[in-house]
## 1
Amino acid sequence: MQEFSEKIQLLLDEVWHVIVGQDSLKRDIVISMLAGGHILLEGAPGLAKTRTVNSFSEALKLWFQRIQFTPDLLPSDLVGAKIYDPDVKEFSIKKWPIFANFVLADEINRAPSKVQSALLEAMEEKQVTIWDTTFKLDTPFIVLATQNPLEQEGTFHLPEAQLDRFLLKTIIDYPTPHEEKKILMWALNREEYKIKKIFWKKDIIEFKKQIENVELSESIYEYICRIILTSRDNSKYPEIVYWGSPRASLALMRCSKVLAAMQWRNFVLPEDIKEMAFPVLRHRIILSYEAMAEAISPDDMIQKILNDVTVS
């Protein structure tokens, strides 16, 4: 675990050279990558979402592609299509951006349902189908989707089934005054920092194997179950109309194991569960209109559940 933690810290330090702050975003990208899941990013424009993802891909030398989702986007624009070549008089398959390792789906909620369905197959099955041929996607494959919380005109509501496929949802906030000042100072430096490669793709696969060795005690298993089951108690929490599925329990377990490994431990603590409960559950807990009208947020409900559930 020491070698693992040191290399992950080297990765975070390398990205720090070009991205000021956004510690939770950096942490969650690493956790998503090592837990084998996808991440939904919500934040206002200009908060370095694209640059952060691109910086990680450079540090890992992984293939990065950005897709701008628009209402007129077609599934073939995402996965590829059969193209007729008049020179050889035959069709050939052209693969499009989904075949990258890091796929940034910018403003994902602006695309219609047909595009979302094509993306859903890639996210869940790690494969895409073009006409009658199915292609396996490379490992690691991570979809990092962004949503703009400010402008909702011309957007489509993401179905709950698709939201549940995202391992984490990270809220990206504005920088602190100290971080804002550092951004201004760095902007005066004309020299662009060239990110160094930290480790190889094979190291990511090896790290995933090491994470499997992180242990959970019986009480931690029960703690995870009680958190998820308590959230489904509609009589106790009438504000919640849709709650986490067993996929939420699995996500909380996997993410907590990665977080423990990042902190030089081969065992999970209740504090790991509490820390990861927010990004794991905030997009899986759907609140009633009455709760939203009272300005109650999913994070408020998660904190309330954590306060009510004790560790045995």
## 2
Amino acid sequence: MEKIGKYEFIAEPFHCDFSGRLCLGHLGNDLLNAADFHSTDRGFGMKYLMTIHRSWVLSRLSIEMTEMPSQYERFTVETWVESAMRFFTQRNFQIAESNGKVYGYGRSVWAMIDTQTRQPADIFAINDGTINQWIETDKPCPIEKGDRVKMDHNAELVRTIDVYYHDIDINGHVNSIKYIEHVIDLWDISWYREHRIKRFDIAYVAETHQGDKLSFYREQTGEQTYCVRLVKTDQNTLQDTEVCRCKILFTSHLIQRPQ
């Protein structure tokens, strides 16, 4: 078995937007699935971790794309572990057409937690540090690592939503990709007729659960760059807690449906 895993996906039409291109949220799910396939095959995946009350939790994700796969198109996701420390590991992705044309790349940082205490767990304690066997440092990932998203206190409150059943994942908190989808929805379809997302960065800080309210604060920090801060409100204590920050880089172009 090689250190780099390669998995095929298809841009199903009901996972595409009005332009006939794969939605970023569904691409994010494909990246997370590829990560799970890769780690499971190599002895440190969720299927095994759940039996010992451990779980992977996404801490950071960056996706940078020059183009999105079009509907019905088959594409591949390659993924590999770039580095591992006691509590965090860095995993990269390459998204490409089946003929080899590269659409883009992803970078991610993962933490392992104890599902009973919700505290960080030692990655190297899993199967005698088996993850170290699979670290790949020779394959490049040419996109920049995600930086800290800086925002001031003048960011505009643009939306507040309730957290419901479909937002929650196997770990009992809001699914990592749901945050991305909710942030993307801050712009309407008329914006996306003339813009596409070139890069999306998200850094997760705290968990959100059903019954919380999520507030979205948006700030324009460049010509086509926006930052978004998500804050949850606990309905019992009414206490506000920042849960994640995002940075979105758009590029202008007229959306055309693939032929």
## 3
Amino acid sequence: MSRLFNIFIVLVVFTFIACNSNKKENTAPIKHEKTTKGHNEIIVDCDYTFEEAIAGSKAPKYILNQLKLINVRYYSTDKKIHSGQILTNREITPKIESIFQFMLEHKFPVAHAIPIVKYDWDDNLSMQDNNTSSFCYRDINYSKHAKGLAIDINPYFNPVRWKAGHENRINRPIGAHYDPAIPGTFSKSNPVVQKFRTLGFRWGHSFSAKFDDHHFEMQY
């Protein structure tokens, strides 16, 4: 009888320990992974570090020290929200962020926003891909892109078109045609163009020799 009683006590104690052990495990906090599915999906077009974004640039150090890599979100041509990056001059960073917020709120589509390092610093390849970008080092005497003080938006939708007297020059990017009916294309009445102007940018449409409709540069 005593032996059976001892066995009973052991079973009770074992059961008590097991139950309390399970209870402790079940009360542990549950870790929830972030999801990008469904209506909250954000498509990441690029995620460079600053060092990666300037890798291979021929710009001198004093210019590279003026730059900042910013993350931006935009409504893209696939009607989804994307996350990209703009490598630009620190002086105009708040204005660029304001422009992207404005375009997102108005659902003005931006095809891509990726630093030109992806295209081996070839601006023509970037434009051909309809990529939006700011810094691209070149001759600082004629281009504000060399210091990141300009930005090109949807260059394939808004190609360079040469004006009268310059018809022998090639419109770029190759194969692009200007059609203001296409979403993401600029016109004089476009609210994004007006927003740029209020922030102190000059629109490339006003250049003397060409309609550089994708180009906006800071006026200092």
## 4
Amino acid sequence: MKKYQVMGIGNAVVDVISRAEDTFLDLMGIEKGIMQLVERERGETLYAGMNDRVETPGGSVANTIAGVGSLGLKTAFIGRVHDDALGRFYAQAMADQGVDFVNPPVEGGELPTSRSMIFVSPDGERSMNTYLGISAELGPDDVDTSVAAETEILFLEGYLFDKDKGKEAFLKATRTCRAAGGKAGIAISDPFCVERHRDDFLTLITHEMDFVIGNEAEIRSLFQNDDLDADLAAVAAVCPLVVCTRSGDGVTILRDGVRTDIPVTKITPVDATGAGDQFAAGFIYGLATGADMELAGRMGNASAAEVISHMGPRPEADMIALYKEKGLL
């Protein structure tokens, strides 16, 4: 038995969430419903404009790892925070949620801890404005090979693929984990990230990954066949396990050529933040515990449904009890 059942590598971002009317978004020049990267000054302006701020540890894969941890598995996370108030808050909050935050806050240097200002509209749509700060500087030196070798399932965040040292960190961790008998997968994260690095992304998925998770737009961005079934088949031809979330249309999983489609019950979100992250948490929990693909997909759907029923990107319910109630355990 390895020390960690699931470990993630990704951006360590403090999510700062507040409710906002559409008129406020217009006034501040915030594009609704997407994630935009902002510079430090813009980030400080938006932060100052938020009412009733709720601060939570975030970052896409970090949210997933916290979700897996809430289901009782042994988890760890590799990310970079600065030794400032938000960084110390982040590291402690991860530890409080039962996740080993492997790297201590970084002392010295200029860049502060990353933060994402998330404005939630009355319809539950979220508009994210992310200042990446120190987390985007994650590199191979941040990867402890002794930790990676003690991991059964490693999960990577596509956003970090934007920098060469992020790619190097991924390769170091992935090759160490797989050489020791573990499996590695990636959350595609963003179709624009694929646009910028398509060849490298496809090389990584083809040669280094055991599974890939993405939404419809992300999966379609890889091979650009302009047809979801053709795109899924193309990804499945180079990676043994492909998971595509399709919002209200359910989930499609291709494993070793076998397709599984799992429907979802549509509900109106209170806050859509973290839906994909928590789907991944439930699915990876299923993968780690030997569930078949239909059950793993249903676990993912249950986790996504829980997180969109309240503000914030991480589960609030007793997830084990919830799974039992739904007949998943």
